[in-house]
């Protein structure tokens, strides 16, 4: 697929894009993996992820780390950024946000392996860290630690 053909099929790359109103209406794009015969890990880190507590309406903050071993598809990064931004005014619990993002990406990409870690900053004195994964890590792939420390004021 040529670059011109590729950009014709993408919703955001190479265009101005408004932030989606909510995660359900956000468009996630995928692009062909140029190395589908090779096992490797792609990592996205969102150090300033925000959502809204569905009970209090207060903001919740997290560091998200998404690792995946692609098969035929890669997630297009601009669409991923806009999708994650759509949670900014979305009311959902930490567990729901983290798992929903993982499931949406897994459904779109059908990766060999995907894991997401949501490292949520405390509200009410308790940090909640949420982890979800699907698939098996390929045998010869190096999966580094997420680099996020267990909660100790996360500085």
Briefly characterize the structure.
This protein has helices spanning 3-8, 77-85, 94-109, and strands at residues 30-32, 42-52, 59-69, 73-75, 113-120, 129-135. By secondary structure, it is an alpha+beta fold.
Topology at a glance:
Blueprint: H1 3-8, E1 30-32, E2 42-52, E3 59-69, E4 73-75, H2 77-85, H3 94-109, E5 113-120, E6 129-135
Antiparallel strand pairs: 1-4, 2-3, 3-5, 5-6
Kindly describe this structure:
The strands form two sheets. Strands 2-3-5-6 form a four-stranded antiparallel beta sheet, covered by helices on one side. It has a two-stranded antiparallel ribbon with strand order 1-4. It has a single domain (3-135), classed as GTP cyclohydrolase I, C-terminal domain/NADPH-dependent 7-cyano-7-deazaguanine reductase, N-terminal domain (GTP Cyclohydrolase I, domain 2), CATH 3.30.1130. The relative contact order is 0.20. By secondary structure, it is α+β, with helices and mostly antiparallel strands. It is globular, with a radius of gyration of 16 Å. The protein has helices at residues 3-8, 77-85, 94-109, and strands at residues 30-32, 42-52, 59-69, 73-75, 113-120, 129-135. The model has no long low-confidence stretch (mean pLDDT 91). The termini are far apart. The longest helix is centred in the middle third of the chain and has 16 residues, at 94-109.
């Amino acid at each position: 697929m040529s670059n011109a053909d590729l950009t014709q099929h993408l919703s955001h790359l190479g265009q101005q894009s408004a932030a989606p109103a909510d995660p359900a209406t956000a468009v996630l794009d995928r692009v062909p993996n140029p190395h589908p015969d090779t096992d490797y890990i792609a990592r996205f880190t969102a150090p300033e992820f925000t959502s809204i507590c569905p009970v209090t309406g207060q903001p919740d903050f997290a560091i998200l780390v998404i690792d995946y071993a692609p098969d035929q598809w890669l997630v297009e990064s601009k669409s991923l950024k806009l999708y994650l931004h759509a949670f900014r005014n979305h009311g959902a619990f930490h567990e729901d946000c983290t798992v929903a993002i993982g499931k949406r990406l897994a459904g779109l990409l059908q990766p060999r392996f995907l894991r997401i870690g949501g490292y949520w900053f405390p509200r009410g004195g308790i940090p909640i860290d949420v982890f979800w994964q699907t698939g098996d890590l390929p045998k010869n792939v190096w999966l580094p630690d997420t680099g996020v420390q267990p909660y100790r004021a996360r500085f």
